Amino acid sequence: MLVTISGIDGAGKSSLAKKLEHILVVNGIKVKLIEFPCSKVWTMIENLEKKGDKFPTYGLNSTSVGMALNLERLAFMQDVVLPNLDVYQVVILQRYMLDFAAIGRAQNAGIADLELVEDINRLLNVHKISLFVDTQQNEAYRRINKRGISVDIREQYDFHKHLYDSYQFLYNSNIFECYRLDGNLSLNEITQQALEIIKMGGVPL
After folding, report:
1. What are the tens digits of pLDDT across the range 67-94?
2. pLDDT band for position 202 (cuts 50, 70, 90)
3. How many CB atoms lie within 10 A of CB 119?
4. Pick from 62, 71, 63: which is nearest to 40 by CA?
5. Is the pLDDT assigned to residue 115 strictly greater than 70?
6. Are 203 and 92 in contact (CB under 8 A)?
7. Residue among 76, 121, 65 at smallest CA distance from 98
8. Cα torsion for 112, 115, 117, 119, to the nearest 10°?
9. Which end of the chain is more exposed for a tag (fewer CB within 10 A), N or C?
10. CA atoms within 13 A on the CB side of 111
11. Backbone phi, psi, residue 174, to 5°
12. How many other C-beta atoms lie within 10 A of the C-beta of residue 161?
């Protein structure tokens, strides 16, 4: 089974994923924890901007960049995530389609970008449980401040607030099927919520 954990930066995805991994292992479940890597696409674009004299001829725009990013994500799913489903009883994946759609929407991507994410979600026809850690924006940003804000645009306040609104819009639109977890509760309480959902999905606990 694939268990995906989505949520805004600072929501508590990593803490929940590690806690779930520990509990499942203690209960004799073979588990693999995976986090989507930082995008190679952005690195390549930056290198082209710095070194490629012909870079402008590519005519990159938000639609083409969004397609490149999402195809990279699809390749990662097919090459890394799906093979592990044949080896492990549970694969826990940090970030999934709700995250990619929310980030794209916050960056003013067009409808084609969202449709591509939806198509990829349908194409990856796997048995999964998608969890959305719904943490208030001010609480999530307080946690980011506590650990130290990086150069990542998702951790800049104005974008973070816009991103929060994107998550809420997409979740309430029911475009992606997700179970909502109350991210403002304690880690133990959130973990208990998640375990109940995972048990309902057929994992013997």
Report:
1. 788 888 888 999 999 999 999 999 999 9
2. confident
3. 12
4. 71
5. yes
6. no
7. 121
8. -130
9. C
10. 0
11. 60, 30
12. 15
pTM: predicted TM-score of the whole model, two decimal places: 0.88
Amino acid making up residue 195:
L
- Token pair 């194409």: residue: 123
Q: Take residue 105 and report the two structure tokens written for it.
A: 């929407």
Amino acid letter, 155:
E
What Å distances lie between residue 170 and 49, 106, 143, CA to CA? 32, 11, 23
3-state secondary structure the chain: CEEEEECCCCCCHHHHHHHHHHHHHHCCCCEEEEECCCCHHHHHHHHHHHHCCCHHHHCCCHHHHHHHHHHHHHHHHHHHHHHHHCCCCEEEEECCHHHHHHHHHHCCCCHHHHHHHHHHHHHCCCCEEEEEEECCHHHHHHHHHHHCCCCCHHHCHHHHHHHHHHHHHHHHHCCCCCEEEECCCCHHHHHHHHHHHHHHCCCCC
Judged by phi (left if over 0) then psi (alpha if -120 to 50, else beta), residue 77 lies in: alpha
Tracing tokens 């509760």 back to the chain, one arrives at: 185
